[in-house]
Amino acid sequence: MVKEENIRLIFGLKLKLLRQEKHLSLAQLSQKTDISISYLNEIEKGKKYPKADKIFALSEALDVSYDWLVSLKLSKKLGPLSEILKSNILSELPLDVFGIQPGNLLELISNAPSKLNAFISTLIEISRNYNLTVENFYFSVLRTYQEMHENYFPEIERATEQFRENFLRDDKDLLSSLKDYLTNKCHYEIDESTLLSYPELSNFRSVLRMEKKKKGKLMIDGRLTDQQKTFVLSREVAYHYMQMEERSYTYTWQSVNSFDEILNNFKATYFAGALLLPEQELVKDFERFFKKYKWDAEGFLNIMFRHNSSPETFLHRLTSVLPRYFDLSKLFFIKIRHMPKRNHFLLTKELHLSGLHHPHGTITSEHYCRRWISIQINERLAKQLEQSAYENPLCEAQISSYEGTLNKYFCISLARPQYPNPDFNCSLTLGFQIDKNFRERVNFWNDSSVPDVAVGQTCERCPIQNCDVRASEPVVLTRSQKNTVIKKKLDELLAKPISN
């Protein structure tokens, strides 16, 4: 069923296009129908839907039938737009995140309907061919939202500080304080045993069941470390303290119902990271760390251990703090999951501030460059685990020079098992573009002990010759080069003068 808002939008768009086809201004149509200009304007923008007597007046003035004007049928050239409106996707897309109103979008479309609808039709076709779901779109929008704000959100930082001042006691550790808050303020029962009885739910770190009178039962996987439990409880505190009602009741995701769920999940995660890693403490830590002239992996890990943070929370938190306080915004963050039994790698998270930097998500059938520190550190972790030699997260650095570009990145990578799932490991990598700004703020930027490695995006696209770790031939690159040669020869042929 088409939503009421979209019925208004369709009617308004039809009215505007019909008025323009008749070469009538709003003032002229107002004179013909005795409807005010301001009301006509609101109808065309989809804000108002006129009563029957006004629709009759409009149909007579525009020489169309009443039934055609109120129908949901649009002209052929607006077919793709009609499909979008009837699917209600406009109400599902988080346009408000970017300050866009559906009516404004339709107004833009109506100004150049043929070209923009061809573009919309193309997007629909691409989404079908690549099985792009609304969920995929939501997560892409969230990444864009983070990148627009350089992943720093002052309102969440303030909320975290207020919670810390009001509810964290000096004589208690963070985990105990969070349990007290959830038990006494949120009326939660915290259960660490029930989930263990459901092996099918082993991928969930927590499940919340809300009961009557706003009481909740928070079921946590009892196998989690205290560090992981602290993070889970911090997220739950965020939902309550920041009064975010629309949410998922599982962590991690099972299904996505709306963009607000995804946005609130991000805010809860951000809150938890800020609670574990206070920004001013991190600033002081990295003011000292960046003054070193030698890369110090142990010192980097010690900052993480001091805050009792996981590698993922630690590096992700740095994507908020370092751009804000050190002007290091040309960076990327990626998470690579490794399945050692299949020796398969998958990029599962990415964030790029100040533009799209390499590496980034690509077609899953291709092989990510085996020269990346993100891949190599995962392979070294797998060997340690196989030999029962693993103790702490691995921490390594690499200067990555992307072949075919002028870009160089100082990459810091951490790797750890994906506990409690024994089948996965993962690496988290933070890459800083080595530019004038980075060189001025980070003294160890040219430490000779850090390997400088030429890397590509995927093996299928990589121009590096004689690569000893290549997982696939450069078939995509070869095809592109072949097409370039063909185009060059074709241009030469067409440029030759025609002989008599």
Task: Describe the overall structure.
With 500 residues, the chain is an alpha+beta fold. The protein folds into three domains: 128 residues, 434 Repressor (Amino-terminal Domain) (Orthogonal Bundle); 123 residues, Arc Repressor Mutant, subunit A (Orthogonal Bundle); 203 residues, no CATH class. Helices cover 48% and strands 13% of the residues. β5 and β6 form a beta hairpin. α11 packs across α14, α12 packs across α13 and α13 crosses α14. The longest helix has 21 residues. The termini are far apart. The model has no long low-confidence stretch (mean pLDDT 85).
List the helices and strands and how they pair.
Elements: H1 4-21, H2 26-33, H3 37-44, H4 52-62, H5 66-70, H6 79-86, H7 89-92, H8 102-111, H9 113-129, H10 134-148, H11 154-167, H12 174-184, E1 188-191, E2 206-210, E3 216-220, H13 226-241, E4 250-251, H14 259-276, H15 279-289, H16 297-306, H17 311-326, E5 331-339, E6 344-352, H18 373-386, E7 394-402, E8 408-417, E9 425-433, H19 436-441, E10 452-455, H20 475-495
Parallel strand pairs: 1-3, 7-10
Antiparallel strand pairs: 2-3, 2-4, 5-6, 5-9, 7-8, 8-9
